[in-house]
């Protein structure tokens, strides 16, 4: 699957937003059932005894003597039990299945080695020598490999950063993953009832959801949501929103598209905290097809078990650690504060405190509770016990935000190199693709043949604001490696590779087509 240019659009249609009508109907139906059960209970206690002159009264009389209630009361009680069972069935959360997913791989023309990246940074002429040296040092320690992808706008001479090229980048990613996903899942666009799109830093008018509806000719009542400004954790937020909407809208599909735009968000100034993103973020995107249809369980890959969202925006330090801003000369970029790792750790602890009781075995919960009691009740200076989440999960998909983030989570969660491999290989091959990185990691597990029926997968994402979000999936079937359309399939024979902590860049290995070199 390579890059695609913007194609012709279908006839324009309209979209609608979510209403609460279905929720109101469900609540009213449950109230009616409860009132009916109360009425039936009254009937049970007030039912008169049987008359001896009624046909079959002797047999019914024996039944009355046996159970202590009149047959009429027994019949009413049975009917009440059936009504209660129905009320329970209709009020249960509907299962949400992941039918399939698709990850974007740009064409060879968009590949950029680290030497090529530095060469283009230098030739654009906007960075000081100190900024170039800093970006080179960061890139050597970033964990990124030699085949990450840039949009054409940033590796052209000169750079071409404008709304037109930004749209071209996003259109190529969106159409690429959606085309591939709908084809492999054999689902028509008209069957999609819920559409959710997230891109944090680019939100044009008309929205990207409108673009998708127009391109694929989706139905007029599709429920669409366009999420922006929610950072790298927006992919899990989109999944959580889709899960909630699938509880309301019956027998339908939800299409979730996650990406980020690089063209207009490359930083062309010399403020050091804003230069870090240049060395990490790359082109990528993913599309995920969810379903609440019972018939899809047999072919679905996963069932969504839990989503846990943590938002620490009420704390000033958390709110301000990742911000889009202008520098002193008016260049726009995303600034990362030095407190980012501390903030991320606090958000993770809050998130796993909620998630732990839902997934951990009782032995781990008791150990954690014991340290809490010792510290808070008995004032003992005991180090808090960090539960072993390897007892709850088989696979870990940790947002590939950077080498530092992955190193810290590997240490704090006591994970092995095998557990961290999907995240590290995603960072190496694709870079930080923002909210879509989790899906490259899950696709890596599939391509390697790691996913077995019954396995549990934990996705962890961090984002500005500051947010930490988790999703827990259960594999419904074994996923064979080498599937068509998996972004990793063509290179499974050479992965994993060793990624050194520091990998020097030889800038002389790249020459511009006109024969020039940066140096």
Automatic annotation (TrEMBL):
<dbReference type="GO" id="GO:0006633">
    <property type="term" value="P:fatty acid biosynthetic process"/>
</dbReference>
<feature type="domain" description="Beta-ketoacyl-[acyl-carrier-protein] synthase III C-terminal">
    <location>
        <begin position="394"/>
        <end position="474"/>
    </location>
</feature>
<feature type="domain" description="FAE">
    <location>
        <begin position="89"/>
        <end position="375"/>
    </location>
</feature>
<dbReference type="Pfam" id="PF08541">
    <property type="entry name" value="ACP_syn_III_C"/>
</dbReference>
<protein>
    <recommendedName>
        <fullName>3-ketoacyl-CoA synthase</fullName>
        <ecNumber>2.3.1.-</ecNumber>
    </recommendedName>
</protein>
<dbReference type="GO" id="GO:0016020">
    <property type="term" value="C:membrane"/>
</dbReference>
<dbReference type="InterPro" id="IPR012392">
    <property type="entry name" value="3-ktacl-CoA_syn"/>
</dbReference>
<feature type="transmembrane region" description="Helical">
    <location>
        <begin position="32"/>
        <end position="50"/>
    </location>
</feature>
<keyword id="KW-1133">Transmembrane helix</keyword>
<keyword id="KW-0012">Acyltransferase</keyword>
<dbReference type="InterPro" id="IPR016039">
    <property type="entry name" value="Thiolase-like"/>
</dbReference>
<keyword id="KW-0812">Transmembrane</keyword>
<dbReference type="Pfam" id="PF08392">
    <property type="entry name" value="FAE1_CUT1_RppA"/>
</dbReference>
<dbReference type="InterPro" id="IPR013601">
    <property type="entry name" value="FAE1_typ3_polyketide_synth"/>
</dbReference>
<keyword id="KW-0472">Membrane</keyword>
<dbReference type="InterPro" id="IPR013747">
    <property type="entry name" value="ACP_syn_III_C"/>
</dbReference>
<keyword id="KW-0808">Transferase</keyword>
<comment type="similarity">
    <text>Belongs to the thiolase-like superfamily. Chalcone/stilbene synthases family.</text>
</comment>
<feature type="transmembrane region" description="Helical">
    <location>
        <begin position="66"/>
        <end position="89"/>
    </location>
</feature>
<comment type="pathway">
    <text>Lipid metabolism; fatty acid biosynthesis.</text>
</comment>
<dbReference type="GO" id="GO:0016747">
    <property type="term" value="F:acyltransferase activity, transferring groups other than amino-acyl groups"/>
</dbReference>
